[in-house]
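F.,

This is the one I mentioned.
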């Protein structure tokens, strides 16, 4: 019997399936079949193309060449037999220029029983429509002009210097007020000068003006839930359903039928964002696939890519029907190779890992080591929730929050600060710190100093946020838990949340549209908490709201918070030791009020000291200040880098409001009111002194307009 096969045993009129022990997990298999080369896939040159695929359990393998990328077309050119080679790989070479020719692998797994699969190449770099056929591609020909000079504009930053903004490509332009031409396409992020009918900047101009440093794009690899042959029909999905990991999504291109188009347009998007001073983070989903049974890797090597339980079913910790067996040598290699490919070929500057708690720490460390060897500026973070999964091998730890010390350099979303500020995502009526819950001071204090609960030991590993694409938007969540609150108070809660995570130690993360009170409302008037496949009408960013002064004020408040954070290095410390040296929690007598005294003395820091107070109560509170004169830069209505007023001895913190004060001759900006938060000034003096890349803030100050 062959250990890699499944057998049927007939006895007494009954048939029994015989599954051999997990041969893939044995040291014998891995020693014999672990391939370490970097030439898997179709390796093109003008004179010939060499195909190499890993298929150790196959009896025969061949390459099918096709004229088109449409899997329904009967346009086979020829079938080329492949030859078995090193460590379970098969190779074939075809002379001539095959650029633009489509191909699949025909894998015979059991000739006697007629078991044969046709599959796309797991290492495909381009594909045809709906990703069923790979395409041979001259990658250099897809590079936009000046690509060789393209680089991460924030390469000199630490991760804590980042301000991340999370966006779905399609959300950006589907509302009629966006002014965007390439709706739902990579190219929408290259369009400048777009405005609402009333003349308010939209799209990338709005994002750039906010002052963010990194744009986190929801999945942009080729995914399965959108039919690329029917793009004249509105379709929406977040894209957490991978089909081809190393290929851009076809529905985001202007032509999904020709494989080179999506490749070139994805690069154009990255280059344009880099030219705008914005780094690009890619949301990746290596923990599961769209359909494990039909996933190309599993069609070539049955069930190797996915975790299968002893009873023969897929492990389902992802709640998507299958978990990836990252602990297997060739799965680990595949994921490492894939991330490295995006970082080098597409110049991607960061990776957000979906449900990374299903991937082992060894794999994550190997990914970071491989990428940082050539791109030390690339950042990594993900969802470190603890999940149940059936590992195929023993002795592996998973990449969860509680194992954060095992993956130094990898950051985790802090559900601690998220739920602490607004209430648990699992209970929509529960209130949090900003919305009226009591006795949460200690939790907020811990999160503020970059120590989220019991799992985080360094501010370089906590991503602080109030909302993301998952669950309700921040404004919707506040409405659900505070149904009797006035609109004014809801906005104060929203802004207080932003002030907390924007001034806290760690990495701040903004859900697109949070800064304009984004809401997701179903046709029946209810709030949508899981809009992964809802309509454009639910998911779109409604740009025309910015023509309303109330919404515009919130945007400006966020701009001021971002500008303030970027001006002060003491808010962006990278170690627990530095936090302990500079940040002290103040013992406040007022219930629910939290305060922090921050000392300067840090290279590049213009403030001698900083005092930050959060008051979630419905009443104003008077507090005593440390000795000296203090400049107020942020309160409940205003935010920026200029002084609102100078105070001493005592100060009033308004209801449901933050108060941020700085001390020192050079602690506040002298620029004109209303200057751009992404202007030409650099990140204050810190950029010059610390050598930080210049994503500027200049002087920024927002003052709330009087209500009409």
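My design for it:
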């Amino acid at each position: 019997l062959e250990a890699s096969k499944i057998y049927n045993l007939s006895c007494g009129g009954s048939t029994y399936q015989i599954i051999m022990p997990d041969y893939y997990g044995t040291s014998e298999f891995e020693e014999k079949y672990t391939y370490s080369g970097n030439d898997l896939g179709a390796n093109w040159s003008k004179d010939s193309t060499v195909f190499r695929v890993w298929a150790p359990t196959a009896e025969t393998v061949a390459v099918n060449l096709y004229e088109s990328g449409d899997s329904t077309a009967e346009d086979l050119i020829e079938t080329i037999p492949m030859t078995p080679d090193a460590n379970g790989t098969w190779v074939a070479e075809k002379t001539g220029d095959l650029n633009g020719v489509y191909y699949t692998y025909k894998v015979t797994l059991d000739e006697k029983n007629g078991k044969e699969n046709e599959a796309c190449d797991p290492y495909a770099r381009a594909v045809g429509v709906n990703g069923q056929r790979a395409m041979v591609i001259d990658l250099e020909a897809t590079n936009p002009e000046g690509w060789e000079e393209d680089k991460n504009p924030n390469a000199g930053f630490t991760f804590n210097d980042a301000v991340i903004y999370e966006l779905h490509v399609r959300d950006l332009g589907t509302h009629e007020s966006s002014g965007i031409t390439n709706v739902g396409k990579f190219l929408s992020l290259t369009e400048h000068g777009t405005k609402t009918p009333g003349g308010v900047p939209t799209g990338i101009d709005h994002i750039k003006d906010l002052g963010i440093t990194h744009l986190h794009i929801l999945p942009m690899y080729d995914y399965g839930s959108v039919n690329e042959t029917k793009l004249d029909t509105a379709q929406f999905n977040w894209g957490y359903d991978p089909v081809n990991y190393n290929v851009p999504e076809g529905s985001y291109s202007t032509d999904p039928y020709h494989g080179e188009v999506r490749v070139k347009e994805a690069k154009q998007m990255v280059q344009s964002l880099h030219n705008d001073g914005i780094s690009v983070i890619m949301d990746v989903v290596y923990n599961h696939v769209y359909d494990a049974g039909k996933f190309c890797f599993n069609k070539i090597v049955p069930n190797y890519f996915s975790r299968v339980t002893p009873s023969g079913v897929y492990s389902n910790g992802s709640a998507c029907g299958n978990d990836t067996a990252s602990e297997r040598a060739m799965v680990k290699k595949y994921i490492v190779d894939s991330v490295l490919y995006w970082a080098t070929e597409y110049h991607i500057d960061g990776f957000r890992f979906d449900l990374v708690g299903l991937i082992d720490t060894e794999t994550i460390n190997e990914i970071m080591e491989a990428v940082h060897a050539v791109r030390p500026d690339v950042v990594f973070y993900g969802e470190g929730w603890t999940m149940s999964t059936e590992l195929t091998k023993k002795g592996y730890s998973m990449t969860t929050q509680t194992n954060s010390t095992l993956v130094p350099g990898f950051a985790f979303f802090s559900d601690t600060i998220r739920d602490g500020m607004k209430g648990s995502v699992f209970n929509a009526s529960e209130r949090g710190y900003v919305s009226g819950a009591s006795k949460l001071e200690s939790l907020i204090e811990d999160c503020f100093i970059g120590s989220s609960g019991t799992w985080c030991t360094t501010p370089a590993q906590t991503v602080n946020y109030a909302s993301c694409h998952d669950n309700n938007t921040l404004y919707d969540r506040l409405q659900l838990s505070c149904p009797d609150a006035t609109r004014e108070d809801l906005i104060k809660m929203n802004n207080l949340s932003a002030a907390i995570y924007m001034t806290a130690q760690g990495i701040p993360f903004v859900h697109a549209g949070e800064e304009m009170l984004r809401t997701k409302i179903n046709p029946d008037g209810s709030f949508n908490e899981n809009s992964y496949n809802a309509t454009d009408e639910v998911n779109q960013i409604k740009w025309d709201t910015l023509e309303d002064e109330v919404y515009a004020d919130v945007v400006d408040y966020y701009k001021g918070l971002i500008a303030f954070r970027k001006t002060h290095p003491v808010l962006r410390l990278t170690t627990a030791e530095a936090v302990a040296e500079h940040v002290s929690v103040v013992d406040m007598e007022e219930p629910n009020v939290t305060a922090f005294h921050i000392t300067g003395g840090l290279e590049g820091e213009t403030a001698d000291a900083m005092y930050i107070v959060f008051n979630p109560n419905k009443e104003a509170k008077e507090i005593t200040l440390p000795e000296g004169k203090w400049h107020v830069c942020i309160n409940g209505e205003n935010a920026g880098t200029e002084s609102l007023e100078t105070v001493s001895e005592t100060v009033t913190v308004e209801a449901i409001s933050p108060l941020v004060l700085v001390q020192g001759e050079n602690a506040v900006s002298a620029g004109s009111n209303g200057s751009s938060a992404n202007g030409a000034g650099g990140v204050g003096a810190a950029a010059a002194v610390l050598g930080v890349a210049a994503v500027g803030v200049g002087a920024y100050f927002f003052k709330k307009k009087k209500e009409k």
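Residues 429 and 481 are 4 Å apart (CA to CA).

Talk soon.
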